[in-house]
Design a protein that fits this description.
By secondary structure, the protein is mainly alpha-helical. It has two helices and no strands.
Length: 110
C-alpha cells in the first residue's frame, strides 16, 4: 500500500508538472503572439510617422514654391509700374483710370 501511495503521488506530481509545462507553453505562445502583434503595430506606427513626415516636407516645398511665385510676381508688378510711370505721364494715367471707370459703369448699367 505504501508503494502504491508513493506511486500515485509521483504520478500526481508528474501530471502537475505536465500542466505547468503546458501552461508555460501556452503563455509562451501567448507572449509570442502578442510580441508579433506589437511588432506589427510598431511597424504601422513607424510607417504612419514616416508618411506624416513626407507630407510635412511636401507641404513645406509647396509653401516655398508659392512664396517664390509671390516674390517673382511682386517683382514683375513693380517693374510694370515703373515702366508705366516712366512712359505715361501722371495726368494721362488719371485720365485712363477715369475712362476705365466710366466704361465699367456703362457695362454694368446695360
Amino acid at each position: 500500500k505504501k508503494q502504491e501511495k508513493i506511486r500515485e503521488e509521483i504520478e500526481e506530481k508528474e501530471q502537475e508538472k505536465l500542466m505547468v509545462e503546458e501552461k508555460y507553453g501556452n503563455l509562451q505562445e501567448e507572449a509570442a503572439g502578442k510580441t508579433k502583434k506589437l511588432q506589427k503595430i510598431n511597424q504601422m506606427y513607424k510607417s504612419a510617422k514616416a508618411e506624416i513626415s513626407d507630407m510635412k516636407q511636401e507641404h513645406e516645398r509647396r509653401v516655398e514654391t508659392l512664396l517664390d511665385d509671390i516674390k517673382q510676381l511682386t517683382k514683375e508688378m513693380r517693374l510694370q509700374e515703373l515702366l508705366i510711370n516712366y512712359t505715361i505721364p501722371p495726368e494721362f494715367q488719371e485720365l485712363i483710370e477715369k475712362v476705365k471707370k466710366f466704361k465699367s459703369l456703362l457695362s454694368t448699367s446695360k
